[in-house]
Amino acid sequence: MRTCRMPEAPRRLLHIEASPRGARSRSSAVARHLIDRLGGIEIERIDVFDADLPELGGGMIEGRYALIAGEPVAPGIAADWAAIRAHADRLLSFDTWLISTPMWNFGLPYRLKHYIDLVTHPGMTFAVEPTGVVGLAAGRTAILVGSGALDTRPGSALADHDHQIAYLRRWLAFIGVEDVHGITICPTYGEVDAVEAVTGEAYAAAEAIAAELVARA
Ligand SMILES: Cc1cc2nc3c(=O)[nH]c(=O)nc-3n(C[C@H](O)[C@H](O)[C@H](O)COP(=O)(O)O)c2cc1C
Q: For a pocket test of ligand 1, which of 103, 106, 196 has the largest count of ligand atoms closer than 8 A to its C-beta?
């Protein structure tokens, strides 16, 4: 039988930052605005464009198939797989994840996808049981901040172009994360007034989510 845990107030938050635009990034700015309103919790950041992310090509990827078969990874790639496990363990050591990302070609910037591919392996963030896949990240809270030039918000004409927020929700569900909050900043291209309006709405949404999380304490 599945048990439901009430979401708790954040104590340790990992900000996974996927825009390489630094101070010019809208998604990063809205994420920082939310963080500034949480106060009194431990916060760490991983900038996926700057992080040391092991490659998953060549013989390395065979480790994934070994894990699926319930076998140890081959000795020649064990050190690299230990580095991958360290990324997954670090992610799971946080109760709250804040992922801020632009939309790139309808999906995620490749470095964020690389990070997701690194941490999503059997025995790390999910387990394969006789009854099916079980997410090992259950009980965590995720906040998604997605920016994009196009209006891909739910209900818009281009909503089906969204492989960014929709993809992140799909991935989070796969690894067991159910408490997910989304903020979109789009369209960021167009009339200045319209862009300012959606940006203001995103800051307001960040404030509302921060207030909701703080109120859980
Ligand atoms: C390589 C690249 C691809 C992009 N592809 C899309 C896209 O498919 N859809 C979209 O709405 N915007 C796209 N954009 C625009 C960015 O998502 C948009 O400028 C966003 O506001 C940037 O967010 P940031 O300031 O947080 O980096 C793309 C931008 C870049 C650099």
A: 103
Cα(63) to ligand 1 centroid in Å equals 33
Beta strands in 22-151 (DSSP E): 42-47, 96-102, 126-129, 132-135, 141-147
Question: Tokens 């990992």 sit at which residue?
Answer: 14
Instruction: Please indicate whether residue 164, judged by its CB atom, sits closer than 6 Å to ligand 1.
Output: no
pLDDT confidence bin for 40, thresholds 50/70/90: confident
What's the angle, vertex CA 53, arms to CA 181 and CA 180, rounded to 5? Answer: 10
**What does the alpha-carbon distance between residue 109 and residue 193 come to, in Å, rounded to a whole number?**
27
Contacts of 50 (CB under 8 A, 6+ apart): none
Q: Check pLDDT > 70 for residue 139.
A: yes
Whether 143 and 34 have beta carbons less than 8 Å apart is answered as yes
Which of ligand 1's atoms lies nearest the C-alpha of 152?
11
- Host H or E run for residue 83: helix 78-92
Q: Is 102 exposed, middle or buried (0-12, 13-18, 19+ CB in 10 A)?
A: buried
